[in-house]
């Protein structure tokens, strides 16, 4: 089949999913009897309930009188082992004044620190190549991207990929040229690579990209990096709706041993309270507990606060936006609609694998 189709100029690959149309075409050519259990019936359209909820937030955001400044959400990105987590660890160690009491530090993938009275929320992302989705999500969720590039390694594949995510999300990029304490570090060469591979021209070379040479391990110049982040954030005037319903972005979801299904999230708008009804895609819940990045239970969480949300009925998708809704009934109604829409999509999109067709020929 692959060969025949290739001759006709259509490329099929082993393992490829075929849509209904193509599967039918193949079945016809090779005289295979396939029972497609998909009926293309006419169904009344269901309006996506999330569209209406999003509209509320968009409308509120249009009127800046409703809004307050919120701390920036900054995502640390870069190639594997270039020092993202080390940088965040250093910042946390030196900037988290409050001693962690009453709780084991919860790793929620996001942290808030305070610099001269100003807060910054950081999201860490993994550099490994399989985590493309997480990096894309990180870039979407963020106000500023700090691109960490090791000065002894230069611009590498996941540096480029991270850069592309930041660019398509239209987010300002600050480059942290890391590991300058290493004997084989070469800042100049790294800057050259920024220019040649990413077309990012450093400010000191006449361009407009802020680059800060740092050592995440020794802490050298990290203060300058933080100042730059605050500077860029200030120019952006990042705002949030101070009260009312909540919109939060998910960093990750997981089944916690003690807490059950949880979502690590950052509040974007509104204030989330213990007891609120929430939805995340097709999953609903009632907030049983909120745990902050210091492992402490809190009663409420406002804009830019990283928080672990406990109380979902099942594990939500890691890419779903979390909203608070006024009642359990409302939460049910919305999530049931989303389920129905998803099931319809699945029915419509039921694909066949080439291998499935071959089996029917045997
Ligand atoms: P992934 O999360 O796996 O993508 O890696 P990462 O970017 O978070 O790197 P990580 O912080 O885990 O650091 C990788 C290694 O580089 C560790 O052994 C760090 O100690 C080391 N490292 C990070 N920053 C520096 C630095 O400024 N100087 C030196 N000498 N080593 C560093
Ligand atoms: Mg890391």
TrEMBL record:
UniProt entry tagged with the keyword Protein biosynthesis: yes
Keywords: Cytoplasm, GTP-binding, Initiation factor, Nucleotide-binding, Protein biosynthesis
UniProt-annotated location(s): Cytoplasm
GO molecular function: translation initiation factor activity
Predominant location: cytoplasm
Binding sites annotated in the UniProt record for GTP: 78-85, 124-128, 178-181
Family membership noted in the UniProt record: Belongs to the TRAFAC class translation factor GTPase superfamily. Classic translation factor GTPase family. IF-2 subfamily.
Name used for this protein in its record: Translation initiation factor IF-2
Lineage: Bacteria, Thermotogati, Thermotogota, Thermotogae, Thermotogales
Residues of the full protein shown: 106 to 467 of 684
């Amino acid at each position: 089949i692959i060969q025949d189709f290739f001759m006709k100029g259509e490329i099929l690959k082993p393992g490829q999913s075929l849509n209904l149309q193509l599967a039918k075409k193949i079945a016809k050519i090779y005289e295979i009897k396939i029972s497609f259990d998909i009926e293309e019936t006419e169904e009344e359209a269901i309006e996506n309930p999330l569209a209406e909820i999003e509209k509320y937030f968009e409308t509120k955001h249009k009127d800046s009188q409703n809004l307050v400044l919120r701390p920036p959400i900054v995502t640390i990105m870069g190639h594997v082992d270039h020092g993202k987590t080390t940088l965040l660890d250093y910042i946390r160690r030196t900037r988290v004044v409050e001693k962690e009491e009453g709780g084991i530090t919860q790793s929620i993938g996001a942290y808030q620190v305070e610099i001269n009275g100003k807060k910054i929320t950081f999201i860490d992302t993994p550099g490994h190549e399989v985590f493309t989705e997480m990096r894309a999500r990180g870039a979407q969720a963020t106000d500023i991207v700090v691109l960490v590039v090791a000065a002894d390694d230069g611009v590498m594949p996941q540096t480029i990929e991270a850069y592309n995510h930041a660019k398509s999300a239209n987010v300002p990029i600050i480059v942290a040229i890391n590991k300058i304490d290493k004997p084989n570090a070469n800042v100049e060469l790294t800057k050259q690579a920024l220019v040649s591979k990413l077309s990012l021209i450093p400010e000191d070379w006449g361009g407009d990209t802020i680059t800060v040479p740092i050592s995440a391990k020794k802490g050298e110049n990290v203060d300058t990096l933080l100042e730059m982040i605050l500077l860029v954030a200030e120019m952006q005037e990042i705002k949030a709706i101070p009260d009312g319903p909540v919109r939060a972005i998910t960093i990750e979801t997981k089944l916690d041993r003690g807490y059950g299904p949880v979502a690590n999230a950052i509040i974007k708008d509104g204030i989330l309270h213990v007891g609120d009804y929430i939805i995340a895609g097709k999953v609903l819940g009632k907030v049983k507990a909120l745990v902050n990045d210091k492992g402490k239970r809190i009663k409420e969480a406002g804009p830019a606060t990283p928080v672990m949300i406990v109380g979902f009925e099942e594990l939500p998708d890691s890419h779903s936006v979390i909203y608070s809704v006024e009642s359990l009934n409302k939460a049910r109604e919305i999530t049931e609609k989303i389920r129905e829409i998803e099931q319809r999509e699945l029915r419509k999109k039921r694909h066949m694998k080439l291998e499935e067709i071959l089996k029917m020929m045997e």
